[in-house]
Amino acid sequence: MFDLLSRSPIALIVSLVGHIAIGVALFFALENKFGDDTNQSGEPILAVMANTPAMDARVQELRETLQTLEAAEQETLASLPVPDNTEELLQLQQAEKKREEEREARELAEQQRLDEEAKLAEKLRLAEEERKAELAIAKQQEEEKRIAEETEAKRLQEEAEQQRLLEEEANQKRLAEEAERKRLEEAAEQERLAEEAEQKRLEEAEQERLAEEEEQKRLEEEAEQKRLAEEEERKRLEEEAEQKRLAEEQRKRLEEEAEQKRLAEEERKRLEEEVEQKRLAEEKERKRLEEEAEQKRLAEEEERKRLEEEAEQKRLAEEEERKRLEEEAEQKRLAEEAERERLEQERLAAEAAETARVAAEKAEAERIANEQANSADAQARKQRLLRKKKQLLQQYSESIRRAVSRKFRPPSGIRPGATCQVSATIVYPNEVVDAQVISCSAGGNQMARAVEKAVMTATFPNPPHKAVFSRRLEFTFRQ
Fold first, then answer.
1. Burial environment of residue 435 by CB neighbours within 10 A (0 to 12, 13 to 18, 19 or more)
2. Are residues 132 and 254 in the same domain?
3. Is 161 a member of any domain?
4. Is residue 231 part of a domain?
5. Count of C-beta atoms within a 10 Å radius of residue 401
6. What does the buried/exposed string (b/e) look like for 375-389 if buried means 16 or more CB atoms within 10 Å of the residue's CB?
7. Domain count within the chain
8. 386 and 251 housed in the same domain
9. Which of 440, 460, 463 shows the shortest CA–CA distance to 450?
10. Does one domain contain both 132 and 262?
């Protein structure tokens, strides 16, 4: 090094200056491009860290190039002869200067290349930032869209809930109005029925007073006739029961149950039709009765005023006497009716016991018949049982007619022999829940009301067998 300094001090100085200049230029270039981690807008340069390994490799490459140049210069300087004069020194200085210019040109080219690479990295960074910004905007738009959809769904749900609440409120209001309307209709109907019942009661009281003595005699005669007929019928039934101890097999019982189910289904359908027809007929009859009652009320009001003006004093005296006689007659009638009902209940209980015994014998006969009878005998027994059922049904209907006759109080002006077709609804075994007169041969509405009252107040007998029982019973009532 000292030898080189003594031989060519100028070349050494120029080389040192050149190295210093290259180092300074490289330092400022790196400082300007990568010394700060923010761009002109103050945002962080995201691409610096991503490109740091490349920059380090590039710096290492420049260092190696610089070392190569230094080694080449040293070799060049070492090969140069020691200048003997000023001309050679000038030539050496010019050559050194030329090499310095060439080196500066190379450094400038290298600096330009580094600048281009930095610009390319900046462009890549900006593109990456734009892509991330677009992704962020898209994500924000999707989030806003999702929030808007959730808001809209919530709004629709709230509107649906409000609509449902309004509908429920309207439905409750409608039900309340309908219940109030039904209540008012039922109150009006009950008031109308009460008025009709009161009017009917007054008419029936007058009719019962007039017909009581005649009815008592007739009932006594009928009771005696009924007792004789029942005694004869009981003996006959005992004889027939003894003769018919052999009855149908178990299969017949199952067939009867199936027949009863079929009849019950037909009865249910018929009852539904009859209920509807009855409702329509009742509605029509109610309107007609209201019109007749109004006309009759007006006529009676005029007649009542006239009679009150003519016979007020007479009415008072007769009223006292009538009340006394009615009370005595009513007490007597109630006592007689209670005695008759007691006798009737005793008779019905005896009939029920006898019927149960006959039914038990019949069941035992049926069990034996299941084992012994052939098909021809079974058919014959079936026919006999059908005839027996028909006979029991006739007896049952006749017992009902007699029970109704005991309670019947004929209206004034009705001749004996009038008939009415009656339909009654019965709850097993003998509870009458409804009665309706279909038609009457005489007497009109008064006769129909008297018969319906007799049916509703009569004590119906128990059916002799479940096979003859029918919830809806129709029979002809004869006065």
1. buried
2. no
3. no
4. no
5. 16
6. eeebeebeeebeebe
7. 2
8. yes
9. 440
10. no
Residue 271, amino acid: L
Q: Which of 86, 394, 423, 465 is nearest to 275 (CA)?
A: 423
Cα–Cα distances (Å) from 405 to 391, 392, 448, in that order, read 21, 20, 14
Do residues 422 and 478 touch, judged by C-beta distance below 8 A?
Answer: no
CATH code of residue 392: 3.30.1150.10
pLDDT digits (tens, 9 = 90+) for 356-370: 777 777 877 777 767
**In terms of pTM, does the model score above 0.70?**
no
Residues pairing with 440 in the sheet: 420
Domain that residue 39 falls in: 2-150
Same domain, 391 and 278: yes
CA distances to 57, 245, 362 from 381, in Å: 124, 10, 12
Q: Do 268 and 146 fall within a single domain?
A: no
Q: How far is CA 40 from the centre of its chain?
A: 72
pLDDT at 333: 83
Select from 115, 150, 185 the last residue of a domain: 150
In 3D, which of 401, 423, 431, 438 has the Cα closest to residue 472? Answer: 423
- 3-state SS, the chain, equals CHHHHHHCHHHHHHHHHHHHHHHHHHHHHHHHHHCCCECCCCCECCHHHHHHHHHHHHHHHHHHHHHHHHHHHHHHHHHCCCCCCHHHHHHHHHHHHHHHHHHHHHHHHHHHHHHHHHHHHHHHHHHHHHHHHHHHHHHHHHHHHHHHHHHHHHHHHHHHHHHHHHHHHHHHHHHHHHHHHHHHHHHHHHHHHHHHHHHHHHHHHHHHHHHHHHHHHHHHHHHHHHHHHHHHHHHHHHHHHHHCCCCCCHHHHHHHHHHHHHHHHHHHHHHHHHHHHHHHHHHHHHHHHHHHHHHHHHHHHHHHHHHHHHHHHHHHHHHHHHHHHHHHHHHHHHHHHHHHHHHHHHHHHHHHHHHHHHHHHHHHHHHHHHHHCCHHHHHHHHHHHHHHHHHHHHHHHHHHHHHHHHHCCCCCCCCCCCEEEEEEEEECCCEEEEEEEEEECCCHHHHHHHHHHHHHHCCCCCCCCHHHCCCEEEEEEEC
Name which of 7-16, 142-151, 215-224 the model is least confident about: 7-16
pLDDT of amino acid 52: 52
User: Would you say residue 110 has pLDDT above 50?
Assistant: yes
Indicate whether 219 belongs to any domain: no
Confidence band, pLDDT 50/70/90 cuts, at residue 79 = low
Of 150, 178, 198, the residue at which a domain comes to its end is 150
